[in-house]
Amino acid sequence: MQGELLCEGKIRFGPLPWETSERLAQFSGNWLQYAPEENALVVRQPLPSSCPAFTAVPCELISLIYSIPAELRDSMPGGCLYIKDRSGDVVRILVERGDVRIQWPHENYGRAVPIPVDAALKGMDAKAARVKGWARFAGACERAGDLQKFVEQFGGLYPEGDLPSECEQNLVYVRFKDVNIGPKELIAKLQELSESQESLQAELDVSSPQESFRLRVRDGQVSAMRPAVWKEPSAVLGSQPSN
């Protein structure tokens, strides 16, 4: 996977004395270089023999930041570098006032952002989608079996997954454990199986290698949200020691 890693982003240093700017411009890294015209650290086109981004980028970044006087580091505008692979963000390197924080993606629905339902459903690769969560609706007990058959016949890329269900007093409760089903098709099927739209309740986390979001159904009304990806605080490298 390291051969497919790439780096994107920019770290703004702000105004620097010409002596410092000239010294930074002489730095020749495998991944990073200083752009005097922007007063910023930018990503260069890595050479075929360059070190993997996971190893080289933090080292080069810290080396450059530590070559700047402490009083100038405190006023740096900063920025972010993203090390990615083909599936999306792998790690973020955040720079604030000379501090360097390495952050791994961490889905947080406590800070989720609402998104249009239609856009979420259309943007998901149905055959690669995995669903976790639960759904409840009014209906005869055999409708849980109808849902099971529908999922088994869907024809997604991942046949594994589990769909345990319970039924009590004409109320069907279903749990989704990494079930491979398109979210658009699933919502339509749940609406079809429900005796009344108002009885349908669900909370479904949908993910694929490229996308993730949560579908929430309350009294038949569907909403969608995307989780915050980065959490604070994270591991800190290069920060000045406290006294």
Q: Keywords for this structure?
A:
alpha+beta, disordered C terminus, seven-stranded antiparallel β-sheet, 14 strands, 243 residues, 38% strand
Give the percentage of residues in beta strands.
35-45%
Mean pLDDT: 85
Share of helical residues: 10-25%
Task: Count the E strands.
Answer: 14
Number of domains in the coordinates?
A: 2
Rounded to the nearest angstrom, the distance between the terminal CA atoms is 41 Å
Number of helices: 6
Describe the protein's architecture and organization.
The protein has 243 residues and is of the alpha+beta class. It contains 6 helices and 14 strands. The protein folds into 2 domains: 2-105; 110-227. The protein has helices at residues 18-25, 53-66, 70-73, 117-123, 142-152, 183-193, and strands at 6-12, 32-35, 40-43, 78-85, 88-96, 99-103, 108-115, 130-138, 165-168, 171-180, 201-207, 212-218, 221-228, 235-237. The strands form 2 sheets. The chain has a 7-stranded antiparallel beta sheet. The chain has a 7-stranded antiparallel beta sheet with strand order 7-13-12-11-8-10-9. A hairpin with a 2-residue loop joins strand 12 (212-218) and strand 13 (221-228). The two termini are 41 Å apart. Residues 233-243 have low confidence and may be disordered.
List the helices and strands and how they pair.
Layout: E1 6-12, H1 18-25, E2 32-35, E3 40-43, H2 53-66, H3 70-73, E4 78-85, E5 88-96, E6 99-103, E7 108-115, H4 117-123, E8 130-138, H5 142-152, E9 165-168, E10 171-180, H6 183-193, E11 201-207, E12 212-218, E13 221-228, E14 235-237
Antiparallel strand pairs: 1-3, 1-4, 2-3, 4-5, 5-6, 6-14, 7-13, 8-10, 8-11, 9-10, 11-12, 12-13
